[in-house]
Amino acid sequence: xxxxTKGPRLGGGPAHERLMMANLATSLFEHGRITTTAAxxxxxxxxxxxxxxxxxxxxxxxxxxxxTVVRDKTVVHELFTEIGPRYANRPGGYTRTTKIGYRKGxxxxxxxxxxxxxxxxxxxxxxxxAAKRAAKEQAAAAAAPVxxxxxxxxxxxxxxxxxx
Length: 164
Fold this sequence. Notes:
three-stranded antiparallel β-sheet, 3 strands, 58% helix, 6 helices, CATH 3.90.1030.10
């Protein structure tokens, strides 16, 4: 178990920090990515990854453990039905933080923390898209010669032979 942090806890007491982390985790799972300060993201990452691990288990005890942190039942449902199974084959590292510069007012370092998309799902999506494009091209190629082979109707010409 990691040692508790000493000193100020993100500008408040331990209860306030716990509630802030719960709200950040809720927003992260609801929107997929959030923009926050580097210090808050550093504290959020282990919590969010632990909650995704609980969601991967998927049992009732895990759901109740997550409900103690994330109070919104719709977000917990999304976490257990969509996010958890999405990372079933991934051993960890469900979040990514990207530095985006400094906040204008107080020059605090800002980051975007987001859920990492599993690589296997992206590869499957790309392969599915390529297969659909290939099928569409084959269908278009098969339809084009059929249209060219169809006999054309005779066209009446406006000449001396047509008047007779």
